[in-house]
Amino acid sequence: MIRVCLVDDQPLFRGGIAMIIDSQPDMSVVAQEPSAIGLTERIRTVRPDVVLMDVRMPGIDGITATRDLVSGLGDEAPKVLVLTTFDEDEAVASAIDAGASGFLLKDAQPDFLLASVRAVAAGNQVVAASATQHLFERHRARAGDPGPEYETLTPREREILVRAARGLSNAEIADAEVLSEATVKTHISRILTKLALRDRVQLVVYAYDHHLV
């Protein structure tokens, strides 16, 4: 069962999303929060797997709340999936930097929303296609050569980093590198550790930041 926490200041929207999620046999809404104030303590209590986080809320915005969850809970932090609208791309890019595992638009179809929650809960990432260009243009503008942390990667790890940054799944990387999926997963984990990255979204951003793809 995927445990979901909704954080949004709009009761009608929050309630609608809750109905969609609770209609699924493998999902359950364990908390609905109208703001991010005191969210870290609330998360410690309800222990969701995924937090659906609105970007713009009174008091504490979704970016700050995401950063607080990631820094405050560390490895025990839930996956954060940011909900946004078309005019908030800049804020969403900041949310990815803060540690969010992905984002999607509030007008997404219910099936896509549910698939996104499942993907994030499974350790994958979701990035709304309409905002991807803005996200990477922002990072490309500040790109530079990789630092000494990149030198700690083995040649095989560097190859896998580039393939992952181009969007290949573990299965596709395994086929390309003639490896098992379990071995690829181990390599990805080591790459994230060596580069001090939280997940594959940050891995992609790192690769774009440093002209690796």
In short:
This is Putative two-component response regulator. The protein is α/β, with parallel strands linked by helices. It is built from 10 helices and 6 strands, in the order βαβαβαβαβαβααααα.
Describe what you observe in this structure:
With 213 residues, the chain is α/β, with parallel strands linked by helices. The protein has helices spanning 11-22, 39-46, 62-73, 89-98, 110-121, 129-141, 155-165, 170-177, 181-195, 200-209, and strands at residues 2-7, 27-33, 50-54, 79-84, 102-105, 126-127. The chain has a 6-stranded parallel beta sheet, with helices on both faces. Helix 7 (155-165) packs across helix 10 (200-209). The longest helix has 15 residues, at 181-195. The mean pLDDT is 86.
Identify the CATH class of the largest domain. Alpha Beta
For the largest beta-sheet, the strand count, sense and barrel status come to: 6 strands, parallel
Under CATH, the topology of the largest domain can be stated as Rossmann fold
Q: In which range does the helix fraction lie?
A: 40-55%
Q: At CATH's second level, what is the architecture of the largest domain?
A: 3-Layer(aba) Sandwich
Low-confidence stretches: none
Overall geometry comes to globular
Q: Please indicate the count of domains.
A: 2
Number of helices: 10
How do the SSEs run, as a string of H and E?
EHEHEHEHEHEHHHHH
**On the 0-100 scale, what is the average pLDDT?**
86
Query: Rg from C-alpha positions?
Result: 17 Å
Strand content: 5-15%
The end-to-end span amounts to 37 Å
Sheet with the most strands: spatial strand order: 2-1-3-4-5-6
Would you tell me the structural class of the helices and strands? Answer: alpha/beta
Specify the CATH homologous superfamily of the largest domain: Response regulator
By DSSP, the count of extended strands is 6
